[in-house]
Amino acid sequence: MSDQMLVTAARLLTDGEVCVAAPGAARRAARLARATHAPRLTVLGDDGTVDGVPAATVGAAEFSGYWLQGGRVDVGLLAADQVDAFGNVNTTVLGEYDEPTARLAGTGATPDVAAGAGRVVVLLPHRLTAFVQRVDFVTAPGAPAGPPDRAQPGLRGPGPVAVVTDLGVLRPDPATAELVLTEVHPGVSVDRVRAETGWPLEVAEEVGRTAPATTAEVAALRAG
User: Fold this and answer.
1) pLDDT-based confidence at 195, cuts 50/70/90?
2) Which runs of E-coded beta strand occur in 10-118?
């Protein structure tokens, strides 16, 4: 995972929030936020940890019921293997479910986090095989075909508000919920992002450029 991707994701977290972060890249981004600009960020793990410390009281029932269903999670950081034009996430299988070409890590708490967190940020490397028109399996819903699809089943919050990659940042269009390229990382062109996206990617009228990772941020990543 690139430093710039982790730093960009960390900057989307706010001091004082409660964040659920999946193990791996998402947890690293959350810890980076705590170490830099958000020292009061609570990092809740779906593995029963709070701020990195095992907490016997955070069982599956409390994690889902008290934290997520209770509306106490401000943001969920999720890692994905596949994402599509409407922010649906796949961490289950590639190919047909009954005869997949690859079995992935599985669901874990990904569906619960996507459904219950106030907002969701998704992290994954930007590759043509990962950014597809429709995911092979919907592990966690974005907006399956547009904004009304989250409201109908009663999903909390707007779902993915950003997909952060090693090339840039995509955000859902407010009207259509389709992901739009809004920012690129230093040294990355819009054409490169489009070439690694498996649908005709819409681009914001003014594409921003993320600020490079600072020396302090990189040092905190290495220390964490």
Assistant:
1) very high
2) 18-21, 42-44, 49-50, 53-54, 75-79, 82-84, 89-90, 93-95, 100-103
The whole-number pLDDT of residue 175 equals 86
Question: pTM of the full predicted structure?
Answer: 0.89
Instruction: Give CA–CA dist 192/165, Å, rounded.
Output: 13
pLDDT the model gives residue 146: 54
The tokens of 26 are what? 């998402």
> What whole-number distance in Å separates Cα of residue 22 and Cα of residue 97?
23
Residue 170, H or E segment: strand 168-172
- Tokens in use for 18? 């409660």
CA 162 – CA 82 distance, rounded (Å): 14
Q: Does residue 145 carry a pLDDT above 80?
A: no
Q: How many angstroms separate the CA atoms of 63 and 24, rounded?
A: 19
29: tokens are 């981004």
Instruction: Report residue 110's pLDDT band, with 50, 70 and 90 as the boundaries.
Output: confident
Residues 6 or more apart from 58 whose CB is under 8 A from it? Answer: 44, 48, 49, 50
- Report helix angle 3-11 to 215-223, nearest 10: 100
Query: Which one, of 198, 203, 110, 202, lies nearest residue 159 by Cα?
Result: 110
Rounded CA-CA distance 19/7 in Å is 16
Closest by Cα among 197, 170, 195, 186 to 3: 186
CB 41 within 8 A of CB 33: yes
